[in-house]
Write a structure and sequence with these properties.
Blueprint lengths: L1 E7 L8 E7 L9 H11 L3 E7 L8 E6 L4 E2 L3 H14 L5 E6 L2 E7 L5 E6 L4 E3 L5 H5 L5 E4 L6 E5 L3 H6 L4 H4 L6 E7 L9 E7 L4 E4 L6 H12 L3 E6 L5 E8 L2 E6 L1 E8 L5
Parallel strand pairs: 2-3, 4-6, 11-12, 13-15
Antiparallel strand pairs: 1-2, 1-18, 3-4, 4-5, 6-7, 7-8, 8-17, 9-10, 10-11, 12-13, 13-14, 15-16, 16-17
Length: about 270
């Protein structure tokens, strides 16, 4: 069975967020979850995506699941982008593809210029008090904290400026106590002439990811937050990890469009069958 490693939210190899992608045969269902989890643990990337085609005429075209090295997750942006990229690259699907997932039907649209847009649910934001010891765990002052609701289960934390976000060296183990999934830190871009409007980083130790290189799903919370602050529905976010990546966001009420690019860096064979 072929397995591909795709760098998502970038067009430059070895940047962005790498995801494993396996397109499974049309067998009508997924293999046992334990077997999928073992493959994801072996691949050992933030997420590995498994997809199989669905019968024509239904609400979705493909079924899709995502696994970190330790657990299955409800929503993943970069591995969805990577899967849509592989479908287009192999000719298995073109244009708009609908995926049946644990977060409902998610659409992706491949554009002629090579970009791919994801149609995801917008995460509702609720202001909350700064949790005890959060600033200590981050090692930086906190301006505000928002709960992101059930879609992603993160805390969205605004810090003082872009340099603070970039230089952050948090106690990742302590951050695991502060949210269901992870902690997203963010700040406005330091200058208006930069090719992005805000920066972020994401830490997800509860699901086996100390720092995620580029988190598409986090931008379903970052988009409404910064759109309200900046007064524009179309923005670009830079996730300022060591690998880095750009996510274009478009807020459409209860849906958020996330646009990025992807590049395949490894195309190989899984020798042990599922």
């Amino acid at each position: 069975m072929r397995i591909r490693i795709v760098d998502a939210f970038t067009d430059t190899p070895f940047t962005g967020n790498p995801a494993g992608v396996l397109l499974l045969p049309d067998v009508g269902s997924f293999p046992d979850a334990g077997r999928l989890q073992r493959v994801a643990a072996e691949v050992n990337l933030s997420e590995t995506a498994f997809a199989h085609p669905l019968p024509p005429g239904g609400a979705a075209d493909w079924a899709l699941r995502w696994f970190t090295p330790t657990t299955e997750v409800d929503l993943c942006g970069h591995a969805t982008l990577a899967t849509a990229h592989v479908l287009r690259e192999t000719g298995a699907a073109t244009g708009t593809v609908r995926f049946a997932t644990r977060s409902g039907v998610l659409g992706t649209t491949a554009h002629d210029d090579g970009a791919i847009t994801l149609d995801f649910p917008t995460s509702p934001l609720t202001p909350v008090a700064v949790p005890d010891r959060l600033a200590e765990a981050l090692g930086a002052p906190v301006l505000s904290v928002h709960d992101t609701g059930p879609h992603i289960g993160d805390l969205l934390v605004e810090l003082t400026d872009e340099r603070t976000v970039r230089d952050l060296a948090p106690d990742v183990r302590s951050l695991a106590h502060h949210s269901t999934r992870g902690v997203i830190v963010t700040a406005a871009a330091e200058r208006p002439d930069l090719p992005y409007d805000f920066v972020s980083r994401g830490f997800f130790p509860r699901v086996g990811i100390d720092e995620d290189p580029v988190t598409g799903s986090a931008h379903t919370a970052l988009a409404p937050y910064w759109s309200a602050r900046l007064g524009r529905d179309d923005l670009t976010g830079l996730q300022a990890s060591a690998r880095s990546g750009l996510v274009r966001t478009e807020l459409r009420g209860d849906r958020t469009l996330l646009t990025g690019r992807a590049v395949t860096v490894i195309d190989g064979t899984l020798l042990t069958g599922l």
